[in-house]
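Practice problem 4.
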């Protein structure tokens, strides 16, 4: 088996949509980035790439490449899953955490899980997503940004 860990963070800014797990969440600010800046999916992609020892998403989808400007991160995840399909491993499960003071994410977690499971081609029971605040501490607690972590297990075929 292979285990991968991923982490991503983006600054919250006005004039952008807030996309997490492929869900457009109504909020006064969104995440700044070259693509749709979906920190949850970015952390997941990094975890999968890490489990395969293939580097990180910046190597595969550089922010200097205009092809990825505004890119849908779920489509990028689909491309990362091609690496899994070409390997001697299969996706087993992912456990992810979003650190976000506001907005409250509980109403959107199931939709995020469904989007990710559909993209990966797995059962929703293989996708765990949790959201937490940081009690107003640090950049996420002050509302400056949102971060996410992901741990992935890939198993030998």
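Answer key:
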């Amino acid at each position: 088996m292979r285990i991968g860990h991923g982490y991503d963070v983006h600054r919250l800014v006005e004039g952008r949509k807030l996309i997490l797990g492929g869900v457009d969440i109504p909020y006064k600010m969104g995440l700044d980035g070259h693509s749709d800046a979906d920190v949850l999916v970015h952390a997941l992609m990094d975890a999968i790439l890490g489990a395969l020892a293939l580097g990180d998403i910046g190597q595969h989808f550089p922010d200097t490449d205009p092809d990825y400007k505004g890119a849908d991160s779920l489509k990028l995840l689909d491309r990362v899953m091609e690496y899994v399909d070409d390997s001697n491993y299969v996706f087993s499960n992912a456990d992810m955490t979003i650190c976000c003071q506001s907005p409250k994410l509980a109403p959107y977690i199931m939709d995020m899980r469904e989007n990710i499971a559909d993209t990966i081609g797995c059962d929703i029971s293989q996708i765990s997503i949790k959201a937490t605040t940081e009690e107003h501490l640090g950049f996420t607690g002050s509302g400056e940004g949102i971060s996410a972590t992901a741990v992935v297990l890939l198993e030998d075929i």
